[in-house]
Amino acid sequence: MQDMETLKKENMNLADKIYIFDTTLRDGEQTPGVALTVDEKIQIAQKLNNLGVDKIEVGFPASSKGEIESAKKIKQLNLDSTLVGLSRSLKSDIDAIIDADLEYVHTFIGTSPLHRDYKLKMSKSQIIDKASQSVEYAKDHGLTVEFSAEDATRTERDFLFEIFEEVVDAGADFLDVPDTVGVLTPILTHELITDIKSNFKTPVSVHFHNDFGLATANTLTAIECGANQAHVTVNGLGERTGNCSLEELVMTLKASYGIDLGLDTTRLYSLSNLVGRLTGVKMPVNKPIVGANAFAHESGIHVHGILNNASTYEPISPEMVGHSRKIVLGKHTGANALKSKLKEYHIDLNEQQFCKVFDEIKSLGDSGKCVTDDDLVAIAITELGSARETPIVIKGLSISMGASVSPTATVKLEIDGVEKETAHTGVGPVDAALNAVRELVQDTMDIELEEYNIEAVSGGTDALAEVFVITSDSQGNKSTGRSTNQDIVMASILAVLDSMNKLLLIRRA
Predict the structure, then answer these.
(1) Residue 109 belongs to what H/E stretch?
(2) pLDDT by residue (tens digit) across 164-220?
(3) How many domains does the chain have?
(4) Which of 204, 303, 379, 499 matches a 20 to 30 Å C-alpha distance to 124?
(5) Does 408 lie in the same domain as 368?
(6) What is residue 153's DSSP assignment?
(7) Domain membership flag for residue 355
């Protein structure tokens, strides 16, 4: 059986140089609801330049004066990346590129029957004339020209080749193949790009959309077949469902194909975050490479492997893209993961304490709660400070309240092995519950609640409540109590009982 490296070499016809053409500032900004300011475009352009992309499409200068101004300001940064402007096959659009001080034009015209008949209402010959004249005009003005046959993948092959021949004769430096509505599959991509490469010596660029989730796969296939350049966007942004994802393409080429494009991939995660914040388009947690869960692990089996050798369940290290690994706690958490987390926070539990914390994490996970690191720390610290013995244990709690009914708590406690139950009212459910507790323990001890603090450990309506109390007894003894629970009333009772149990142990020592 052939190894992967041999299969790759035998089945790929790679170009000598593969260029990354980023169009986040143009096609990415066409994402519905996205509008970037000049300053925001500058921030993204600088990040793309620092990453090392070859070309940055800064916008569509003919569309507005603002687009021309933003292109000029980005040009003034003197970036290493080549700056590109989009234009239709119109002299006025190309003039806007020149006005913006850009030296590379990406010009396009629709070529498919749908575009010819319904959008342009032009004949094949008219379209060819428009395309070739625009390329000639741009070349006469000293521009590097990339020509796109819009909707190329739904264009008759003979007409596509005819217009490509004409624009090459006119001086086009790159031939771009847009899959405008994302209808390609890898097999169709292989056949199309192989055919184009066999017939044209001019470098071939691809601009693939993601309507069926295949933009990155199709772009990789095109590169395998010799495509010289790939159009991409950060986070896969763009019209409708977007474009080929920059981070997915670059890392697949690097990790799976062994092709290093010379980009500083450690900047990918921060770039993704910046674009997400500025566009308002947040990435799904399971987004490859840059999603919050890209290097997150919960399953006990997976975490055990990760702790021994990260490569067991990670194709690349998070550091390669500037990301970080997360061990997530929940119902699938194993003991090794929990021990690793506790060690990370320098929390040392004995075996009994560890088992209690482990059970609590599992229980919260089973209830649907996502257990955060803050939750774990709160639970572990609570367990560390808990009374060694518990003469007083809660056995039951019921709360009733309404608009015209005083809050009433029914509490059942076991005190030194004897169960007692009572109901009490209060100004609120917590007050009612604590009043009931006081009544039940009055024969055992008198207590005074001197301090009561409550905090939500994390955000969300399912956040754990962390309660800290200080109580004192009639003999002048004081003790702290702490508890974490999803139920505020229960957390309050458990914190008070913890404090009371400590007081009892002091008195009985």
Answers:
(1) strand 104-110
(2) 999 999 999 999 999 999 999 999 999 999 999 999 999 999 999 999 999 999 999
(3) 3
(4) 204
(5) no
(6) G
(7) yes
